[in-house]
Prior knowledge:
The protein is globular. It is 7% helix and 44% strand. It is mostly beta strands. The protein binds dTDP-4-keto-6-deoxyglucose.
Amino acid sequence: MTTPLLQIVDIPHRGDHRGQLAVAEIGAALPFPVRRVYWIHGTQPGVSRGFHAHRKLRQLCVCVAGSVRMSLFDGRREESIVLDSSAKGLLIGPGLWREMHDFSPGCVLMVFADAEYDETDYIRDRAQFLRHVAG
Ligand code: T46
């Protein structure tokens, strides 16, 4: 069976008359121990980000405000999804080319990663990525 490109996890929310509280707990929403958290904000209309893959890194992306279209490509299949809810997270494993498009005003994309920042884990050249997944 083919692994789905877009792996979505549910993030539990506890809501009451005061508002909502979202929980991303390891073992439940998060399938890996978190070593790093970063968030992308202050994005500009019409300006995309990403355009790279990771050799090993696993991440969970949660759009906690606004919306963004995430596109994933494994070298053969390309699929995209609009993230517009803090109740859904997109899991991105290694060997996937990712692009982020159509950031809405006020978008905040929070990312949980299973390793520290390491530039040598990035493949930022698309031709190199295609060679990587082919071989
Ligand atoms: C990813 C997508 C979803 C750091 O110094 N530390 C960090 O932890 C990160 C993530 C980045 N940086 C530096 C590297 C660059 O000089 O911040 C600058 C911007 O990073 P980048 O151009 O890689 O940002 P995006 O938005 O294209 O990609 C980011 C993540 O880097 C990447 O892992 O999967 O978000």
